[in-house]
Write a structure and sequence with these properties.
single chain; alpha/beta; 9 strands
């Protein structure tokens, strides 16, 4: 048996842009994706904290250091610039693997400019330092 377990989470990210006439997806600063081990085109579940909408899409890298979170395509109808969102990815694991797994989590504050909490073994310390100034 395999279980779907939280792999990574980006919490309280602020939407910076919404592009309705785009093919779809959520653009995420590539440095932030790397921080939590999120891969390009990986399926994600997104919850809009500001309005309660939830949707599935896939992650695409936005320019490194941009701190961008852009709703693209149809999901641009489900949120707006300034909304706070939570982005989650999941991995399939055996119960044995799941018992020791630690999700990779980053919590943002101050319009994506400050890391409030980071639980990740893949985060580059130099990148993290940019958010702790």
């Amino acid at each position: 048996m395999l279980l779907d377990i939280l792999h990574s989470k980006i919490l309280r990210a602020e939407v910076t842009d919404a592009q309705l006439h785009y093919e779809g997806s959520l653009g995420i600063d590539s440095e932030i994706m790397e921080m939590v081990g999120l891969l390009p085109n990986e399926k994600i579940l997104v919850g809009d904290i500001s309005n309660g909408n939830r949707f599935e899409t896939y992650a695409i890298p936005a320019p490194a250091g941009s701190r961008q979170f852009c709703l693209n395509g149809a999901v641009a109808h489900l949120g707006k610039v300034g909304d706070l969102i939570v982005i989650m990815s999941f991995a399939r694991m055996t119960p044995e693997e799941a018992k020791t797994w630690k999700p990779r989590v980053v919590v943002f504050g101050d319009s994506n400019s400050r890391i409030v909490k980071l639980t990740s073994d893949v985060a580059d310390p130099a990148v993290v330092a940019k958010f702790r100034r």
